[in-house]
Each structure stands twice: as C-alpha cells, then as structure tokens.
Amino acid sequence: MQIIKTIQDIQNQIFILKKEGKKIGFAPTMGALHEGHISLIRQSRRENDVTVCSIFVNPTQFNDPKDFEKYPITLESDMQKLIAAKCDILFLPSVAEMYPTGLKNHKPLDFGFLAETLEGEWRPGHFAGMAQIVEKLLLAVTPDRLYMGQKDYQQAMICTDLIRQRKLKTRLILCPIKREKDGLAMSSRNVRLDKKSRAKAVELSKLLRSLKASIRRQPTVDGRRIAEAEQRVYDKLTSFPEFKVEYVAIRNAKTLKPVKTLSDTTPLVALVAAWIGGVRLIDNMLLR
Ligand code: AMP
Q1: Which of 27, 3, 19 is closest to 173 using CA atoms?
Q2: Which residues of 22-42 are buried (b: 16+ CB within 10 A; e: fewer)?
Q3: Per-residue pLDDT averaged across 145-151, rounded?
C-alpha cells in the first residue's frame, strides 16, 4: 500500500493512474477503522481498478471540542487493516496540508433543510465542516466513485448534494451498515462504551428492527400512524434511564422531510440519535 501525505503527490499519482485508464474508488474516513470502514474498501475494490482510503480526523466537523480530543487514534492497526483489505493508496494528510490558510470556511455551501434537520439541529456546524473537508478531499483525489456508509445517512445525502452543487465528476455509492453480531451499528466511538453501556446500546437497533417489522405488517400507513410509531419508539427509548435521547424520526428517505401524506411508494427511513455512557450513538434503518 502506497502512503501519500500531500495533495500535490496524490494529484500527480491519480493523474498517472487515470491516464492509464484506471477507475478510482475512494473511501474517506477518520480512522479508528472497523469492519464498517473495511466493507467500503472491499466494495470499492470490486468496482474499481484502484482504491484510495483517506484517514483524516477533521477538526472543523467536531461541534464538541471534547469529542475531538477523545476521538480514538489507532493509525498502526488502521494501516494493518487496510493492507489486509488490499487498499492501494492511503491518503494521510496533516491538518496544515488540508487547511493551509486556517480552519475558517470561506465559501460554505447552502444545503438548506437537509443540513438543518436532525443531526444539523443537534450538532450545529457539523455538516458545514464535514462538507468543507469532503470537498477538499474530492478535489485532491478526484475519484470516479465515492464510497460512503448508510450509517451516516444524512451525511451521504448532503455529499450527494455537494457533488451536484459543485458539479464534481464522482458518483456516490451508498454502502450498507455493518453491524455487530447483536445488531449494534459499528462505529469508531463504540470502543468508548463501558461494558454496561455496550450491552444496553443494542436497544437502538432492536427498536429500529421492530419498527420496520411493524410498518411492514400494516397494509397502509398514513401520516398519523407514522407519527404514532415515531412516538412509541421515542417513549420506549426514553423509558431506559441509561439513554439520553436526542431524536427519533421517521422521514421521507429521499428528502428527509417529515411525512404527512404519503403514497404507497414513499420511501421511509427511521433515524435515531442518543447518548449512552457519555457516548453519542446514531443509527438508522430503511423501512420501505
Ligand atoms: P468515519 O470514519 O466515522 O467518518 O466514517 C467513514 C465512513 O465509513 C463514512 O462513510 C461512514 O458512513 C462509514 N461507516 C462508518 N461506520 C459504518 C458502518 N457500521 N457500516 C458501514 N459504513 C460505515
């Protein structure tokens, strides 16, 4: 695996590869890699000639400085995992390389409602910082395909819009959520869960699964039923004293708008965010 640390070097390397007709797949990450990240690498390898992974803990997307300080850094084992997965190139830039003139966002994009709701409401500034770094990374790597996880559903939707607004020549491929055996969505933050919180954290995915089953059982679902189902999950989750719930939402999976009236073909996604044992977890599930 080739390790590249500067934008100039990655651009030169990609230029050569593209001249040879190679298709480039790219999975940006913040490291502390787990099977979820590696599944993106595998999918990229199946669909492209060259796979690039970046590891960059982006300071501008942490709305909580403590979360940034505590973010796990495991570079040695990350590199071992990437080598084992046959990743071709690791892009490993420094903060100074990505933000040579400082962290200020000079021309933030406007994602409207998409970035204001759910995570946008609870983590102000997060999406502006995320979009800022993803754009810089896309301009450096110029991939044919960008691999992102459904785990961060809203993030992927915003990146699709970023690609559209900036007219970038890359296609976002949304990859399924990798879960632990008991159903907990894999996350770099899971290592910070103590034993009791880890055991309880499984309730998030359990509730999403039973919600999906209950929606599927109903021959027709209207807006009122959706609101009731949302409330039921919220009440159940808040009934566990271990959880501090931020949101439970059932939304239109294409727009993230609340569903009031819906046709049989409206795609639905349920999304949750909650704290447990000092760790903020998110999860989501497509309902239909
Ligand atoms: P992160 O390092 O948390 O910024 O995540 C980097 C990429 O990996 C993002 O596209 C995430 O959505 C994706 N990812 C994180 N966790 C998972 C998971 N459990 N399954 C699939 N993809 C994931």
Answers
A1: 27
A2: eebbbbbbbbbbbebbbbbbb
A3: 98
Q: Among this protein's residues, is 106 annotated catalytic? A: no
For residue 37, the CA-to-ligand 1 centroid distance in Å is 5
Scanning the structure block, which residue is given the tokens 């103590």? 194
Atom 7 of ligand 1: nearest residue by CA position: 29
Q: Which of 152, 162, 283 should be mutated for ligand 1, with most atoms under 8 A from CB?
A: 152
Look up residue 61 and give its amino acid: Q
Q: What is the pLDDT of residues 26-50, one digit of tens each?
A: 999 999 999 999 999 999 999 999 9
> What pLDDT digit, counting tens, does each position of 79-116 carry?
999 999 999 999 999 999 999 999 999 889 999 999 99
What's this model's pTM, rounded to 2 decimal places?
0.97
C-alpha 36 – ligand 1 centre gap (Å): 6
End-to-end Cα, the chain, rounded Å: 40
Tracing tokens 């039923």 back to the chain, one arrives at: 225
